[in-house]
């Protein structure tokens, strides 16, 4: 099977068609259109076997995670997803693997009406690089740099679940496909609708890919402010607490990565607007702290400050 | 050095700034603007060490080739380059290598005013995936599917040079940095201005990444036509003929990849307009054949048909 056949058979058809795609897969490039007043939002995430997922992970899950990581970045910008390119590096072209990969990719693309407009299929160690594009009305994107002292800090979902599953893989423990923590790692649910709904409400937003502590600290630093957050307010899933124990569950909630939840700030006067919005969300939404003027992110428990979480394992 | 430091130190600054970039590297995504009446052109190429270049290739050359491959795709669409994302997978973060890589990338980006707007830096086997974006006035992009029977087929430059260098690497022969064939492989010159100038003149265009025979056959197939081309008309560099000999030089000109030249078709009545344009081009421009109604690409020499070139090594 040459590269052309791989593209034709698995990636040229079956993905959502869109009126704003003038020319999709198959030429030197894709042609797409924006409407007047729209800004383009471009995000890109690369996932490498062994670094970001175990090579044995089901092909459909690898595809889902790679696209979900990008959709989560679009969500954190408040953007509506439109198109994506796929660069797939594979040691060899196995038909069953490719079919499962393409099916996983299509399933998530279908959910968000995302057209596959191009990319590249190359021989190499297994890696998936996706660049996704979406749009926002000019000037309305959620950025990292808008948080202000006094704002409330919120997080969606239950961070730490994916980190537990990744640790289990790293330790060589098998995970059953119906394990809820495996599901959270393998099939994260990007908060696209939630991110879009936060435009005009949130002052700043980021998605959780490197862990709540690291990512929230980035948002605060980009905004030139600091934060105080309550460790015990951070929501943990029952499954995580049961498997990891209370102490480790808390650590994972603060430092585990790959959750693809949203963390954002809102002014105090938008709390009721947010509560009204979130009533219909499928995920939990929890206030975990406040933005303060003094730089740095400090965690508290029962009024006492705690040491900064250890995130040294995240080094390149 | 963590990922954040790598981005800050090597990729966050020093690349062209553009007024159409609202928000660049450092948030979850980039924000960019199009003008009314423009269409977005998106291209993507992944280069993996061992498959597309030897891992020992100079870091600046790896960066140049990866960006040039994408610029060549934009050229083949007739697009003006604007922005790109970079996904860089590296086994380890070596400062000297990263500095040389970033410098090579900046040099080529500067030449075309291309802003680096985002991407990802991950640990993994050396691979570079770039997604580049450009624009064209709506409806003016060069596509593969517009060639018509009677059109003339042209090619820029001297195909085969890069293929010879790649073969030399594959055979373990060292190449000196001032070898002109090494230069053609390591620092290809994407035909961006030439591609843009062909809008309104060329009926179809493609860039040569997989070899003249394969790429021209693709253009003809996409257009629903065929072609007859003269093997002896295909331009070969003096350096290639001298090193490879006449027979092998011809084979490489037809089947070698990675040249990043343009191959395109024009109606007969545009020949003088093309000649006027090409007078100022820095590269050769050669008519190699004609488009015919009967599907398939046939090569001739002295009026005799030749067997189809062997391109079996291109299989995935």
Descriptive overview:
The structure is a homodimer of 316-residue chains. The mean pLDDT of chain A is 94. A 7-stranded mixed beta sheet of chain A has the order 8-10-7-11-9-12-13. Chain A has a 4-stranded mixed beta sheet with strand order 3-6-4-5. Chain A has 2 domains: 3-137, 60s Ribosomal Protein L30, Chain: A (2-Layer Sandwich); 152-314, Alpha-Beta Complex (Phosphoribosyl-aminoimidazole Synthetase, Chain A, domain 2). Chain A has 316 residues and is an alpha+beta fold. Helix content of chain A is 34%, strand content 26%. In chain A, β1 and β2 form a beta hairpin. Chain A is built from 9 helices and 13 strands. The longest helix of chain A has 18 residues, at 59-76. Chains A and B meet through α1, β2, β3, α2 and β4 of A and α1, β2, β3, α2 and β4 of B.
Topology (elements, then pairings):
The structure is a homodimer.
Chain A: H1 3-11, E1 21-23, E2 30-32, E3 38-48, H2 59-76, E4 80-90, H3 95-112, E5 115-123, E6 127-137, E7 152-156, H4 161-170, H5 180-186, H6 192-197, E8 204-207, H7 212-223, E9 226-230, H8 238-255, E10 262-266, H9 271-278, E11 285-292, E12 296-301, E13 304-305
Parallel strand pairs in A: 4-5, 9-12
Antiparallel strand pairs in A: 1-2, 3-6, 4-6, 7-10, 7-11, 8-10, 9-11, 12-13
Supply database-style keywords.
316 residues; Phosphoribosyl-aminoimidazole Synthetase, Chain A, domain 2; homodimer; alpha+beta
């Amino acid at each position: 099977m040459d590269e052309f056949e791989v593209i034709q058979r698995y990636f040229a058809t079956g993905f959502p068609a869109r009126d704003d795609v003038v020319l999709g897969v198959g030429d030197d490039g894709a042609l797409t259109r924006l409407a007047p007043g729209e800004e383009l939002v471009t995000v890109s995430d690369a996932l490498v076997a062994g670094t970001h997922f175990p090579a044995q992970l089901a092909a459909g899950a690898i595809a889902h995670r790679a696209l979900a990581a990008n959709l989560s970045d679009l969500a954190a910008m408040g953007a509506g997803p439109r198109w994506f390119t796929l660069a797939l590096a594979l040691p060899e072209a196995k038909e069953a693997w490719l079919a499962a990969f393409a099916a996983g990719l299509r399933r998530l693309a279908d959910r968000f009406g995302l057209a596959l407009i191009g990319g590249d299929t190359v021989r190499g160690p297994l890696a998936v690089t996706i660049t996704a594009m979406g749009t926002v009305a000019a000037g309305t994107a959620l950025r990292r740099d808008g948080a202000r002292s006094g704002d409330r800090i919120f997080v969606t979902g239950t961070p730490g679940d994916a980190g537990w599953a990744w640790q289990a893989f790293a330790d060589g423990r098998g995970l059953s496909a119906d394990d809820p923590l495996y599901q959270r790692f393998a099939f994260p649910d990007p908060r696209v609708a939630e991110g879009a709904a936060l435009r005009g409400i949130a002052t700043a937003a980021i998605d959780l890919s490197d862990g709540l502590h690291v990512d929230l600290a980035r948002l605060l630093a980009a905004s030139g402010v600091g934060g105080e957050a309550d460790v015990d307010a951070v929501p943990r899933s029952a499954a995580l607490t049961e498997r990891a124990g209370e102490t480790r569950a808390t650590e994972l909630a603060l430092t585990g990565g790959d959750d693809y939840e949203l963390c954002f700030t809102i002014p105090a006067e938008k709390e009721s607007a947010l509560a009204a919005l979130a009533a219909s969300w499928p995920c939990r939404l929890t206030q975990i702290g406040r933005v303060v003027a003094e730089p740095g992110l400090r965690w508290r428990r029962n009024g006492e400050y705690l040491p900064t979480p250890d995130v040294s394992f995240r080094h390149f």
